[in-house]
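From the pipeline queue, job 12 of 40. The input is one protein chain; the requested action is below.

Action: predict structure.
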Amino acid sequence: MNILITGASGTIGQKLVSELEDKHELTLLSRREIPEDPRWRQVDLRDIHQVKRAADGIDTVIHLAIATGQEGDFEGDTFNELRLDTNVKGTYNIFEAARNSGVKRVIYTSSLTVVWGYPAPEWISGDAPARPVGTYALTKYLGEQIARHYATNHGIEVICMRIPKPIDLDDPTSRDTPILPQWIAFPDLIPAYELALTAPLDGFDIVTLAGESTKRRWDISRAERILGYRPQHRLEDMGYTLREEPGDYSQANIVKPE
């Protein structure tokens, strides 16, 4: 299978490339130059012409790329402009290039922040209607709507995967700070992407991935049914401490520059 991966030099992308590179033909996109590896292309997702050239001959796209530079609930006009350009315009360009090149399937990486508006301890279904909190969540929700449009109107098979923050089990410092109960181990996250490459789809679907824990309130049954996803790692049994969620994410501390 010829697979294009956006954001391939990012944290998730690097681990996914390692898993897939011996099984598929990969085209890897990054905003920075990666010399001496013909699989890599330096592409700005905001440039539709660059994206269309990269999508030529591709069977499946795994769209991981997001605006980088700030993590979490950071809000600022300059960075939010980059977020909107990369996460919304860039996602539109990916889907338009996929349509133009006859790509069969796009795996769109969404976020659990899209449903942060459901306060704890409310149970959240795997395809719950969006309640985004913050600009990042809004851009990921708009990406879901772009994905739905291209599945409905152009026949591209699309699966949106709402994912939490992944945890690197090989990083000893990852156990130093308490984690939220939805966070997921990389060995559970990466196989979900591989399953999404070949899972039977009916046009458009949304699934939720979340780490297994005693405080899980995210329904992963759709991912289990559609992907065959089964989380194997319970982080609280591996030396991680769970911290309480905010009772209302909309009241969480959103970092705003002065």
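Job complete. Residues 2-251 form a domain with the Rossmann fold fold (CATH 3.40.50.720).
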